[in-house]
Amino acid sequence: MPASMPTALPPYVPLHAYLVLAAVLFSIGLFGVVTRRNTIGILLGIELMLNSVNINLVAFARFSGDVAGLVFTVFTISITVAEVALGLALVILIFRVRRTAVADHLDLLRG
Amino acid sequence: MSLEPITFAALAVVLIGSAVAVVLTKNLFHSVLWLALTLTGTAGIFLSLDAEFLAAVQLLLYAGGVVTIVVFAIVVTERLVGDRITQTSRQLVNGFIISGAVLVGVLSFVLRSPAWGPRPPIAGDLTKAIGQSVLTRFVLPFELLAILFFAALLGAIYFARPDE
Question: Would the CB atoms of B129 and A67 count as touching at under 8 Å?
Fold first, then answer.
């Protein structure tokens, strides 16, 4: 077992603890994206995945002492907010046209 | 024993619990409220990593902005009361297999990598360092971000146009 496992409660939190937490959150978000049927629910899963990546970036930046990770977190947060705003605008637009927000009902391109 | 591992463990429990609630709650509105808790807990993680500025940005943009937009979208596309707000999930087993495989893959990679030592002490003000490197080392991505926001703004206006 690596020395980084948080079982023995070291006096500080190792980098690996943050990475494991982010990995768990990422796979929970992926689970949501795969299983949700409502488009807004899928967007919430994507939010969870992007959020876990931010934890990774901040943890690496803090442990390596390089500020680049923090700057990239600012960028990803900004891009995510723009993405969510546009994604929800699309959902509302699709709802106005098709009267549904369930992804399975949006099969116009199915051959 | 210091307080730091206890804080981290508590935050991790809150984060994982609320994230599971986000993807499993039947009520879409409750799902968004759990997401707000997850995002606030992430701000707590940022605080424990001495990134106060990012914690503030996280609270303002994510927990404030995104959650508000999502609630607005739910109110527009669903009835607030009634059965349409409940959402069903499908293929739970397949989703569990896929996300579990990804988790095992990432974890095996993470746990095999060499352990890092404790974090170095902070050199100066992190917020100041972020601001300075945004406008010097990362000025090109920063300007590209402005173009991205411009495109997003145009797209939002295009989507929101009234029907002719």
Answer: yes
Test A18 with B45 for CB contact under 8 angstroms. yes
Euclidean distance between CA atoms B77 and B65, whole angstroms: 18
What ipTM does this complex have? Answer: 0.87
Average pLDDT, rounded, for chain B: 86
Distance from CA of B81 to the nearest CA of A (A): 16
The domains found in chain A, sorted by start residue, are: 15-102 (1.10.287.3510)
Calpha distance A103→B11 (Å, rounded) = 33
Q: What is the pLDDT of residues B92-110, one digit of tens each?
A: 888 899 999 999 999 999 8
Rounded Cα distance between B16 and B41, Å, is 10
